Automatic annotation (TrEMBL):
SUPFAM superfamilies: NTF2-like. This is SnoaL-like domain-containing protein. It comes from the Bacteria. It holds the Pfam family SnoaL_2. InterPro entries: NTF2-like_dom_sf, SnoaL-like.
Length: 139
């Protein structure tokens, strides 16, 4: 499977909230680096923590790939993804106000030519996310 197909498979699994299938897209030593959250480490640890937390706090969490760019070498993919959900409980330091967010994310993914993800780096506007959900202070 190509890396671009693996990335599509990852986000399909994310929409289904299938963490095992999401992890299956990573190599044995696959890493994530979610820059705005300061989260960097093994997908099997740090990834599971953030993905399961998001799914718990935002039970209708979903995503849509809006653009996907494959590198010529077959070992890199950059994708734009719109992620959205409605908050159902307190989480991530944000008191629940039942608000919905829709926020563009950028993912830079590197991996093997066989398609396994070695590293997934994510960027989003955390201040906009907090604002959409009604968090107006850092404390």
């Amino acid at each position: 499977m190509s890396l671009s197909k693996t990335v599509e498979t990852f986000f399909e699994a994310y929409r289904r909230k299938d963490i095992d299938a999401m992890l299956g897209c990573f190599s044995d030593h696959g890493m994530i680096n979610y820059i705005p959250a300061g989260l960097d480490g093994p997908a099997r640890d740090k990834g599971v923590a953030i993905w399961s937390g998001l799914m718990d706090v935002f039970p209708d969490l979903t995503n849509e790939i809006t653009a996907l760019y494959s590198g010529d070498d077959g070992r890199s993919v950059t994708t734009e993804v719109m992620i959205s959900g409605t908050q159902a409980k307190d989480g991530f330091g944000i008191p629940n106000k039942g608000k919905r967010y829709a926020l563009p994310h950028a993912f830079i993914i590197t991996g093997s030519t066989e398609g396994a993800i070695d590293r997934m780096t994510a960027y989003w506007d955390n201040a906009a996310w907090f604002t959409m959900l009604g968090r107006t202070t850092l404390t």
